[in-house]
Specification:
- The structure is a single chain.
- The chain has about 300 residues and is α+β, with helices and mostly antiparallel strands.
- Helix content is about 30%, strand content about 35%.
- The chain is built from eight helices and 16 strands.
- The chain has helices at about 15-25, 60-65, 75-85, 140-155, 190-200, 240-250, 270, 285-305, and strands spanning about 5-10, 30-35, 45-50, 65, 85-90, 95, 100-105, 110-120, 130-135, 160-175, 175-185, 205, 210-215, 220-230, 260-265, 275-280.
- A hairpin with a 4-residue loop joins β12 (about 205) and β13 (about 210-215).
- The longest helix has 23 residues, at about 285-305.
- It is globular.
Length: about 300
């Protein structure tokens, strides 16, 4: 009884046309579908496909809009033939969000809701994961937690043990938020590390009914996190440069105030020109202010070196 998009498994590109017709039969008003490779990561295995009548005469390859800009439609369809995948209706609404629910299932079958997040998506069609805000918006955090718990209990009955997550989309229709479950990730994900950072630094807990996180001292905390903070010229900096910048700008972690930036993936700076960080504050605005202060420090240092 968990709401979800209509979807059809496909063994390869030859199954797409039939799968789309099945979806249209069940959802006559659908305008677009999403094709997903079974091995896709962070949305890069996704493609949008228009299915409106006016586009029906065009070959599938000409109607596909790929999330991964480094391949073409022919390569994408060849990969689908090798890996299989699914096709599902694209959920749309007046307002669109992409939250997730993190769960932990014990060997005894107990299911705990660890956290909820709003995922920050980017890429050419807004389907690539770049980061997250914690917790999810209070207007639907408890709602998706309830639906995620249903999934977790089913997984527990199937013998799943450990940490997992359920990705949703929520859309606002006629003033009310409606959740649709998209994917089950039987692993740690992009939202796992930042939550552990917060929990380790503040020794607090998340209340899924209230949609709030409180520290051991009872203070509310929120964060903005990413593992894709990158920019032109970042690879010219060393980890020592980064640590010096954080200290100079006083945006590093302040244990007394329990706020600031915690860094990770520091060694990737010189190699890939990218770092990760979790910016923690009493409010989301405060957390984002720390986030952008760290980014501004990096951008200014890179510009000074280039000048």
């Amino acid at each position: 009884d968990v709401p979800h998009p209509v979807g059809v498994e496909v063994g390869g590109s030859d199954d797409l046309a039939e799968a789309i017709e099945e979806i249209r039969a069940r959802r006559p008003d659908v305008r677009e579908v999403v094709v997903k490779h079974n091995s896709g990561v962070s949305g890069l295995g996704n493609a949008l496909l228009r299915v409106a009548d006016s586009d029906g005469r065009l070959p599938l390859a000409e109607r596909m809009e790929l999330e991964d800009e480094e391949i073409d439609a022919e390569a994408y369809l060849s990969a689908l033939d090798r890996e299989s995948g699914i096709v599902e209706e694209r959920i749309v609404g007046e307002d669109f969000r992409s939250p997730s629910v993190q769960l932990r299932i014990s060997p005894a079958g107990q299911v705990d809701i660890l956290s909820t997040h709003d995922q920050v998506l980017g890429g050419p069609h807004g389907q690539t994961y770049f980061g997250c805000h914690f917790p999810a918006d209070g207007e639907y955090a408890a709602l998706i937690a309830s639906e995620g718990l249903k999934v977790g209990r089913r997984l527990a009955r199937e013998g799943v043990i450990g940490r997992c997550a359920v990705d949703f989309v929520t859309v606002r229709r006629e003033g009310a938020w409606r959740p649709y479950a998209l994917e089950i990730n039987l692993r740690s994900g992009g939202t796992t590390h930042p939550f552990f950072v917060l929990q380790t630094l503040t020794d607090g807990a998340y209340d899924p009914l209230a949609g709030e996180y409180r520290t051991r001292l009872g203070d509310l905390k929120r964060y903005a996190a990413t593992d894709h903070l990158e920019g032109p010229g970042y690879s010219s900096l060393t980890p020592d440069d980064l640590l010096d910048l954080v200290a100079e700008r006083s945006v590093g972690w302040d244990a007394e105030r329990e706020e600031g930036v915690a860094l990770h993936m520091v060694s990737a700076l010189a190699v890939a020109g990218r770092i990760g960080l979790t910016a923690i504050g009493d409010t989301l605005d405060e957390a984002r202010a720390f986030y952008y202060a760290a980014k501004e420090a990096l951008d200014e240092r890179v510009a000074a070196l280039a000048g």
